[in-house]
User: What shape does this take?
Amino acid sequence: MSEDAIRLVTIGRIIRRRWRLLTILAVVGALVGYGTSLLFPPRYTTSASVLLPGAWEERELLTQAEIATSSVVVDRAAATLGWTGVSGSELRDRVSAKAADGNIIKISGTADTPERAQQLTDQMVQQFVTFAARILGDNTDPEAAARPEALRQMVVQTSRRITELADAADPGQTVEGVQARTELEKLRTALQEAMKKLDEADPATNKANMVVMGPAARPTGEAPPTRMQLIVAGALLFFLFAVIGHLAAARASRRLRTEPEIAAALGSVLLGTVDVPGEGPARGPRGRGPRAWIRWLLGVDTRWDLPTPQPSGGEVGRQSRYRQVCARLRDRLPAPRRLLVVVPDGDEIARRAAGQLVAEADSDPSPTSSSRGYPMLRVVEVSVSRPLVPDRGTESGALVVLSAGSWTAGELAGIAEACADGRHEVVGIVVAGTVRARPTRTAGRPPHHATPAFAVGDDARGGSV
Assistant: This one.
């Protein structure tokens, strides 16, 4: 794969050509997600809210949220619930509290059943309100606790004294008497309002006014991640990892894809490119044995990173390409001679192209004319792992036919060395590709080149190694 940005067409090609493998891996991922859900039993979560009246600073609300999940509150809730085998330390991981807007503390509880989740949350709320009220009500300074009560007594006495003064004022309707009584009433009202504000600012009053905003609702669904979420996540992760693995393998591939790279690896010149009609998907495994069946079942017996075949320019255009290659090959040879057509073993596209090339060379209408005719060709398939080319005999020279994007530089260099060991000069290179063939116009009448290409390729392979 080139260093170009990965496009959607590449991912679409992976899905289209590897859908069997991707489907199997997605199923495996779903099974892994299901197995994971069995290790983690379902959980149910519910919550309840506690309102804190009065003016509270943000840090004070955070302190109350910490108190709600403190060990004292959780241990008291665990002791009250009395669940077998469940201690306060275990419950501490199942409860949480957070300060919300509007002086609200939201307490949440999680358990393995909806009923237990509801019971846990309600008990946590109750224990929190009780414990917080106790904290706010406790006062370790007796003098400070007695001061508000003494102030109230003084206000009561002052109010009584104001009443006495008002009664003792001039009972007549003089201006001075009316003004005195009015001032005394204003003073009484101011004292009452001050005392009311003092009561509202008293933490003990806020403590007593904590409001539980209803019991916790019984949960109707599992808390995430649910079993279905784990199954879907497992399938999706395995699918994505498979696609990413294909892209990474293609990016790290060292197979040669351009014609100049192929020519440089073989140390010869490119005579041209030829096309063969693309074949449909294989209806059975290529080879025998369980490994071949597995590869066919997974769909990995065909390359996915090859580009989509382009529409064919027609039979005439394909035949013209083969004639041009034969003509260039003839022009490079000083005299007519026999050549080996070397095809890497396993390169089906190259094998078909070599068979068609042999058929075209055999169909030269004028081998004795001034054009000297096309050279005689014989196909041999060479293993890229242990390349071995027949020694020079009746053939003197080699023509390498291969498809682009299938072999590395080291593999092609090995084929070139094998040709040199067999005393064959690599006189040229032909790169083969696939095209989408047009449907035949007459059913039952295949193109005239189809049978000779395969027949000649198979018969001429008598010297294969």
Summary: The longest helix spans residues 142-168. The two ends are 31 Å apart (CA to CA). The mean pLDDT is 80. Residues 296 and 408 are 24 Å apart (CA to CA).
